[in-house]
Amino acid sequence: MDLETLRQLFDGLDTSSCCDADRGLRVLDPAIRPLQAAPRLLGFARTVTCRGDFLPVVHALAQSRAGDVLVVDAGGGALAVAGELFATESLRRGLGGLVIDGAVRDTATLRTLDVAVYARHVSPMAGQTRAAGQTPGPVTCGGVPVRPGDVLFGDADGVVVVAPDDVPRIAARAAEIQRTEAEILARLRSGTALADLTNLDEHWERRLRGEESAFRFTV
Asked: What is the rounded average pLDDT for all residues in the chain?
């Protein structure tokens, strides 16, 4: 799948609808938060592992391509492994964003850049630049496995990870969910009660009896 196709599939979607489309979706720890108020992260994972030393991040960034999302497994450490220089270079290279299970700094600048940055911590103290190593394969970021080439999609609610083969199915289902929700919102704004747009009463009674039932919208 190429970057343009990916962008078309996720155009107008949000992470919440993707999670509703597949409850088994990998979702990063909600403690990993965006620096921007309205972030939009999308691209293919380029994975990095580091521990208190950001030389591997410099190297991975130098090897990155447009559409990559730099996924940094920094072990949740408190030393910054990225800041305004790396984010600005990511923007110049056309990256889809940065996701760091660790710390960043220079947040005043990061918040102004048009490249999404997510991190677990903010700290002014940076790590070292001494640890050279092999480019990693799969990493753990935000408590979930991320493999090189996985698709990462993020907005203000968080970041999800999708296997490339699953993208068309999840994107199509998420788009269908959002169309339904748009209709529900329109009905709510016109005065219809939310409960009247669901099977709430039936579902409630069946669950009280211990019977199998699924809550659903009826629009």
From this structure: 96
User: How far from 98 is each of 6, 128, 194, 214, CA to CA, in Å?
Assistant: 17, 19, 38, 38
CATH 3.40.50.300 fits 3-169, yes or no: no
pLDDT in tens, 106-137: 999 999 999 999 999 999 999 998 888 776 79
Please give the Cα distance from 169 to 151 (Å, whole number). 13
CA angle at 36 for the pair 100 and 123, rounded to the nearest 5°: 50
> CA–CA separation, 75 vs 143, rounded Å?
10
Express each pLDDT in 133-169 by its tens digit.
776 799 999 999 999 999 999 999 999 999 999 999 9
How would you list the strands of the sheet with 97-104, edge to edge?
A: 26-27, 158-162, 151-155, 41-49, 68-73, 97-104, 117-122, 33-34
Rounded CA-CA distance 65/94 in Å is 7
Quickly list DSSP for 47-85: EEE-SSB-HHHHHHHHH--TTEEEEEE-TT-SSB---HH
- Residue (of 29, 140, 51, 129) closest to 86 by Cα position: 129
Q: Where are the domains of the chain?
A: 3-169
Contact 171, 9 (CB under 8 A): yes
